[in-house]
C-alpha cells in the first residue's frame, strides 16, 4: 500500500453522526472503531461508544478520517483538524516524522500503539498538527 495523506477531523462526541453524513454525501465504505473496542472506556458514561477512529474511503479516491476527542482531553474548536500521513513504508514515514517534528512540538511520541501500528502526533513549526501512522506491511 502506498503512503497516503488526508485530513483527520476531531469531533466532540458526534463523530459517528458526522461520518455517516459524509458517507451519505460522498458514498464509499465507512469503517468505525469505538474506544470500547480497544478497552479505552475511561471515565465511565458513554465513552465506550464514542469513535476512536473512523475512515471513509470513496470510489472517487477520497479518504477522510475522524474520531471523537479522546476521553480526558479537551475539545478545541478551530484546531480540530489535522493532516494524517499513513502507510507501510517505515523508512519513508519515519523520514517525514523526523522533518515534521524536528522544528515542532511532539504531543504523542512515534511508538507502537495498542492497535498495533507505530503512531505519533506533532505540531510543526508552522502550527499544523500532523499524525503519522506506520502499519505493518501486508504479505
Structure description:
A hairpin with a 5-residue loop joins strand 3 and strand 4. This protein has a single domain, classed as 2,3-Dihydroxybiphenyl 1,2-Dioxygenase, domain 1, CATH 3.10.180.10. It has helices at 15-26, 90-102; strands spanning 4-11, 29-34, 51-57, 63-68, 81-87, 105-112, 118-123, 129-134. The mean pLDDT is 88. It is globular, with a radius of gyration of 15 Å. Helices cover 18% and strands 39% of the residues. The protein is an alpha+beta fold and 139 residues long.
Tell me the Rg in angstroms: 15 Å
CATH topology, by name, is 2,3-Dihydroxybiphenyl 1,2-Dioxygenase, domain 1
Distance between the termini: 11 Å
Order of helices and strands: EHEEEEHEEE
Short description:
Helices cover 18% and strands 39% of the residues.
Keywords:
139 residues; alpha+beta; 2,3-Dihydroxybiphenyl 1,2-Dioxygenase, domain 1; 8-stranded mixed beta sheet; 18% helix; globular; PhnB-like; Glyas_Fos-R_dOase_dom
List the helices and strands and how they pair.
Elements: E1 4-11, H1 15-26, E2 29-34, E3 51-57, E4 63-68, E5 81-87, H2 90-102, E6 105-112, E7 118-123, E8 129-134
Parallel strand pairs: 1-4, 5-8
Antiparallel strand pairs: 1-5, 2-3, 3-4, 6-7, 7-8
